[in-house]
Design goal:
Elements (H helix, E strand, L loop, with lengths): L1 E2 L26 E6 L5 E4 L12 E9 L7 E9 L7 E3 L2 E2 L2 E7 L1 E10 L5 E12 L3 E6 L5 E5 L20 E12 L3 E10 L6 E4 L6 E11 L2 E8 L6 E2 L6 E5 L1 E2 L3 H9 L7 E8 L2 E9 L9 E5 L8 E6 L1 E2 L9 E2 L3 E4 L2 E4 L34 E2 L5 E7 L9 E7 L5 E2 L12 H6 L5 E7 L2 E4 L2 H4 L10 E13 L3 E12 L4 E12 L2 E2 L2 E2 L5 E14 L2 E5 L3 E8 L6 E3 L2 E2 L11 E6 L9 E11 L5 E13 L2 E2 L4 H7 L2 E5 L4 E6 L10 E7 L2 E7 L1
Amino acid sequence: MDKTTIQWASIAVLACSAAIHAQASELSPLIQRTADPGCPVETMVMRSAPQRAEAGTARLTVSVMLDNARGQEVQNVLAISADPQRPVMYEVPKSGNVYEADVEAGLYDVVVYIKSDNEDTQIFLFKEDENITSNKRILLNQRNATISTTISRTSPTGIELTLPVAGDPGNCTIADHLLMLRHNDFGTLLQDETAAFRKVCTHIQTNLIPQRFTLTRMDAYTWEEGPAFMVIPVDFGNEINGPSEINWHEVGASFAGTPMSDAWKAVQEPPLFNMTGYFVVADHHCNAYVGVGNYNHELPTDRMYYWVPEGYDGYYEYYPVLRENLIEMADASVSSMPYKMTADGLMPSGLNLSGSGSLMLTNGMIPAEGHPRFREALPEGAKLANAVPALVCIPSSTAETGWDNGFMYDFTGRHGEQLGIDAYNFTDILTDAELEQIGGYHRTIRVTRDGTEICTSPDKFVKWLNWGHGNSYGMEMEMNNVLIDGEIPGSNTASLIYKAADGFIPTLTSLQLRDNDIVTDRFDKGEHATLELTAATFSFVSQRNFTFKAPSGVKAEYAPHGDSEFSELTLTEVPENFYLPGYGTYYQAKLDKIDRKSDDKWYDLRITVEGEGGAVQTQTLSPAFRLEKPENLGCVTSLASEHGGCDIYSVDGRVVLRGVDGTSECDLEPGIYVVTGDGTTRKIIVQ
């Protein structure tokens, strides 16, 4: 395998910090990747620089004996302080046939990490409690790595996960292996990624059981049933480590097609691979975002599987996403909110990925828990991207040091899904012919500086994140890449004005509609329906770092679909649902007072978020929700007679009566009910 250089991937979803929390202090891990040539894996990470010794140093020389017949290669030589109050780590570079570095005098553990040429075996050699106060030579021999364990590859169905070999296509197309070296006091010191589509990393060997370090393997496979993720603490006391048939967790979601993705599928060959995405998280820090292509576009990415041993402390985690509607690249798709393993299984994490996910980070840390209102399991029958999404605008910069008046934008759906297919960074990857075949970008944009147009095309927007020097900036946009229920066109028409002197951009950060507290956009009368939204104003500090102010005003209005006469809803701030980073102030409006003009009606929403000094974002979601008036019956006996028996449920799914027929006494309390029978389902009102 060729050694590849870590680069920032083009699929920038979450700008992750490489810093890892430590009890004594923070040390940045060494993060490296090795992959087969042409392997469709993109990893976004940040690699730390080796630490340099101060005055009062000693020369450390490490000789490593390898087995040339096994094609072994030294990946890293590290010297780590053995004093928990003195967090120091040196990466010892190669010098001729040995590894040498000047280190600050003190007590150290020396670690050598070796891989075989086919990536099948990973070897760790430890030399503990070395007192390096003067020049020191250390010899470590791979022959002494006699303690070994095997990492198993058991699937959720109990069969082996296999990659293609000659004459056998296997049941997976690619594997991604992460090996984490963790120090008890200083956190993660090394993260090594190996991506492969032939061989897999099977064996781990060591010369001793270290007293201050642990190893964890994190394996991801693009399996024929869906991506499979495993977090495997390495216990050298076990001959085999890895998943069993039990303790697997599964989750899936349905995705609506979009006009752009449907048109793409109709005129293009399927993509070479679908993309599975996931964040690698250590002690709430995000180390990397990884996108893995599974080579076979027919392998599903709309469901996934996750395994951790029972009782695991959760230090290392995957935050995987479900994904559909891929066009050419991972960004150009619909991605679910990242999922997190909980005591209740895989659940949405409550993280807002808009703005490349940077809004969720505080000093590189992901919140231990996401927003509580967005950590619920998807309602039964939920379909991602089947509604007009909310626009989220975030200040951005082309430089690390300061804001240059630019911004980026994303769209977020009712269930926290990210519509990267409509985001600012899905821009110029398609040829003109391909773009014409799918009807263009399905969005228009116009940006002005002090009233002068400076950008009028979505594919040029990413090149204009530096908007130059001006006083007032404006944006107008229409996004119409929505087809509700496969037949109802939807659009978000938006505008934004902000001032350079103020530096804060007002924006929605999420929008949901709920009925009896269940996320939906279809209501009976609106009696128990609410509009729920979050909004904030954000100011750029540095990459992955923002400051926040509450909006100076937020207004919500509704109108019958396509009508220009809007009526205002009464928005109430809900302080207990305030949540940063990523969301901001929480607002709620009841929909029970909506003035209905017909029995069944789609309605539009117009949301205005105001900042200081005239800054304002306005967006119209058209259509946004539907009111459906159910039948009005005093009793369901007539319905039961007609259909030969029925069951009655409350609107939240509770059974009220079963087996009602024409002779049953079934007078009900006033309210709304769902009646099923003879293959039909109807909503009724009992008055």
